[in-house]
Specification:
21% strand, 306 residues, alpha/beta, 12 strands, Rossmann fold
């Protein structure tokens, strides 16, 4: 049976509800049917709260529960979980100094057929403006489970961005770490790829002399590992959301080195098309062909291109 991040999220949240009476799931319709299908709403009627299509209230309820010592896990579509109630995240959670785990579905284009209302390539950039939040972009259901359990155990504030796109296997063994998937020669370009774009990147760079690093956590960025793995002056950042979202953190990690940093991601969020997720990956150049084209241009770029 196919195991999606969304299925895994529901199952793990059910286990956390069973193991810790302080855990509360706060929904805004989205995901309710999956909790119901697993019998979780019947098992935990007082700790699975559906506020209806009221996402600002959803965050406010989570903040109130956190103030009373509960550990809220809040889920919904990325634009409705992050963009619509941003003020409530800023005030009811961050400013009050209480913690919650926000887990989104939809990502940049998972529900492309629903139009721009359901697309959120800006979500990670927006969440990164708030202090005290970790931001995770798992590329596989196993990584989602690892990161969700880790954040729940530590009781911190975290945003976990799930998607229907996922890699063929899990790569993150330690929460927050950057790992090397491929090592090029000394001085060769280094690619840092985020989340579910690993397979496309590995396929795209087959036969190229590059190092490929992987991160499922972008805030905080694993600066020591990045510094250790970068072998040359060219660094290529590939992310499944707004291009350059993590470029500042990458540049800060390498601020004492002469590097050229190239960012690849969503450059035109206002496509004004529906289409399929595959269509959007191709248009943004985030399929294997598009990634190879971008990397090849970087390799061939003169120094003046920096």
């Amino acid at each position: 049976m196919f195991d999606s991040m969304r299925f895994r999220f529901t199952d793990v949240t059910g286990e956390l509800l069973a193991s810790d009476t302080r855990t509360v799931a706060v929904l805004a319709v989205i995901g309710r049917s999956m909790f119901a299908d697993r019998g979780l709403i019947q098992r935990f009627p007082d700790r699975i709260i559906d506020v209806g299509i009221r996402e600002q209230a959803q965050i406010g309820v989570a903040g109130g529960l956190a103030l009373q010592g509960f550990k809220p896990i809040v889920s919904g579509y990325a634009p409705f979980l992050v963009e619509r109630p941003y003020e409530q995240i800023k005030l009811d959670l961050t400013h009050q100094g209480v913690n919650a785990i926000l887990v989104s579905v939809g990502a940049s284009w998972d529900s492309s057929g629903s139009g721009r209302t359901h697309q959120a390539p800006e979500d990670v950039a927006l969440m990164a403006t708030l202090p005290g939040w970790s931001i995770h972009v798992p590329g596989h259901p196993d990584e989602l489970e690892l990161l969700l359990r880790h954040e729940h155990a530590h009781g911190a504030s975290a945003y976990i961005r799930t998607s229907i796109d996922q890699n063929r296997e899990s790569y993150t063994a330690e929460p927050g770490s950057i790992i090397a998937l491929r090592t090029g020669s000394e001085g060769s370009p280094t690619i840092l790829v985020v989340g579910p774009l690993v397979d496309a990147t590995l396929d795209a760079t087959s036969g190229l002399d590059v190092s490929v690093l992987y991160a499922s956590t972008v805030v905080p960025l694993d600066a020591p590992a990045l510094r250790n793995f970068v072998r040359g002056t060219d660094v290529i950042l590939i992310e499944p959301f707004l291009a350059g979202t993590s470029s500042g953190r990458v540049a800060d990690a390498l601020n004492d080195r002469p590097i050229r940093l190239f960012s690849h991601g969503v450059t035109e969020p206002e496509l004004r098309i529906y289409g399929t997720p595959r269509d959007h990956r191709e248009i943004h150049g985030l399929d294997a062909q598009g990634i190879r084209s971008f990397v090849t241009r970087v390799i061939q770029a003169p120094l003046s291109a920096a």
